[in-house]
């Protein structure tokens, strides 16, 4: 089972149901350090924050296909889930320490905003370096 942070089309319960056979919908969450930009489909860019939702599923191959990993539309990376606040009684969703995150190619998704990752290389490498160097985290939405 994997926990996935979704912020675009998969925030729609009907869409998730049409794509996945096995899943559990989790709480709303925030990805700190990346903001949403829109093109043909949404993707993420450096800085800011993005609100989304967590889902848990064993069907990562299905999600990879849906997100177009084989076509280079998106890449998938693991992002730390913030440690739960033990004083509030909130536990980490699904008992996970990380969540999978899909980040799309601004060029292939025809994003109008200028998206610049601070390093060179393939998209997955650029995003991974940014996540590590900027302490990108996903945490439960407190609102």
Concise overview:
The chain is of the alpha+beta class and 143 residues long.
Write up this protein.
It is built from 3 helices and 6 strands, in the order E-H-E-E-H-E-E-H-E. The mean pLDDT is about 90. It is α+β, with helices and mostly antiparallel strands and about 140 residues long. About 15% of the residues lie in helices and about 40% in strands. It has one domain (about 1-140): Roll (Hypothetical upf0131 protein ytfp), CATH 3.10.490.10. It has a 6-stranded mixed beta sheet, with helices on one face. The chain has helices at about 15-20, 60-65, 125-135; strands spanning about 1-5, 25-40, 40-55, 75-80, 100-105, 135-140.
Please name the fourth-level CATH homologous superfamily.
Gamma-glutamyl cyclotransferase-like
From the alpha carbons, calculate the radius of gyration and give it in angstroms.
15 Å
Helix content: 10-25%
State mean pLDDT (0 to 100 scale).
91
The portion of residues forming beta strands comes to 35-45%
Number of helices: 3
| Count of structural domains | 1
Number of strands: 6
State the major sheet.
6 strands, mixed
Report the principal-axis shape. Answer: globular
The N- and C-terminal alpha carbons lie at a distance of 27 Å
Q: Which regions have little confidence, pLDDT < 50, spanning 5+ residues?
A: none
Q: What CATH architecture label applies?
A: Roll
CATH topology group: Hypothetical upf0131 protein ytfp
Structural class: alpha+beta
CATH class: Alpha Beta
């Amino acid at each position: 089972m994997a926990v996935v942070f979704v912020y675009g089309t998969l925030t729609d319960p009907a869409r998730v149901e049409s794509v996945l056979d096995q899943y559990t919908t989790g709480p709303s969450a925030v990805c700190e350090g990346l903001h949403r930009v829109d093109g043909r489909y949404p993707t993420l860019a450096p800085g800011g924050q993005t609100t989304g939702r967590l889902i848990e599923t064993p069907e990562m191959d299905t999600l990879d296909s849906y997100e177009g990993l084989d076509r280079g539309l998106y890449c998938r990376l693991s992002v730390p889930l913030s440690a739960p606040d033990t004083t509030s009684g909130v536990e980490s969703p699904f008992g996970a320490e990380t969540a999978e995150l899909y980040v799309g190619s601004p060029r292939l998704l025809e994003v109008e905003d200028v998206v610049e990752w601070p390093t060179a290389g393939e998209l997955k490498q650029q995003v991974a370096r940014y996540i590590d160097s900027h302490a990108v985290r996903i945490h439960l939405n407190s609102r």
